[in-house]
Amino acid sequence: MNTIADRLALSSCWCSARHDDGYAMVEEMVGLGFKRIELSHGIRISLVPGILKAVEEKLVEVGSVHNFCPIPPSAWQAAPNLFEPASTDKQERELWKRYTERTLDFAVKVGAPKVVMHSGSAWFFFGSPEAKFEKWLSAQKREAIEAVSAEHAEVDEAIEVNEFELETKLYASEAFKKQRDRILPRIKRASKKPLRYLNESYATILPYAKERGLQLGLENREGLEELPLDRAYPDFMEKLEDAETFGYWHDTGHAQLKHRLGLLDHRAHLEAMAPRLIGFHLHDVSEGGRDHRVPGTGTIDFDMVAEFVRPEHTLVLELSPSLSRDQVRASRDYLLETLT
Description:
Layout: H1 4-7, E1 9-11, H2 22-31, E2 36-39, H3 48-56, E3 61-66, H4 90-110, E4 114-117, H5 129-154, H6 163-171, H7 174-211, E5 215-219, H8 233-239, E6 246-251, H9 252-260, H10 266-273, E7 277-282, H11 302-306, E8 314-317, H12 325-339
Parallel strand pairs: 1-2, 1-8, 2-3, 3-4, 4-5, 5-6, 6-7, 7-8
């Protein structure tokens, strides 16, 4: 498969929750023009027989699987962070290893060469600085909206508040930068111990992945406390023992959300991670900050993203279940035109 049309996959996160039969789920995805799919972290065990049948019949090719897949028995819906490899709790790390190995075995069954991984997060005993920051941010947004509304009410003028413009001004303010930059050193300090556990967890899973010929794609995340921290990502990847097994998985939406907050530069981050890139989650971010939107309708520069796409990369369209079939088709058509 060399063309973008052959390579572009649809993630099952778009439709797995509404299906009871895995075969019917695959049929729906293939019916929208996809030859490849990603089996995401919302695959219930009840969907597995139908998926295996579809793969056996060569109805579809599975390009990647997203840990944990299938869902662990203790969860009833998608739970990719149910157990974290960076946890300070040894039992949780052992559970992460057990269900990650289960995912790797499933990847082999469906013929998927790559597995997308989350790497855990920093932990805070006395409360999350990110949660406090988000609370402050919400309060600032409310105050800005109320101020604009009050101003127009004085002249008896109706107005539709442009939240995107308000947020852009807020993110450029010194007050915002001060609050943001105040929490980053605390998160960095708190990440040191979890990072050691994360390295140990990846070392324990490495032989299992190598024996099965799998590549593990470590995904950039949207949370401020999720690991590795973005500025440390290149160094983290460089220190991992096996460059052939451990690669970088770029989520366009997550990077764009952080780009807007001034936490990274989307292009510069891609440039830094390009040598280790093995795959993409492709979706857009709306002006209102919602991700998993139709590519080409939001704030991401996909012409820029296209510069980093290589023939060996796995390309996955990762869309919200709230989007319609027509929106999925429109997403596919846009990416076929833009990434070619």
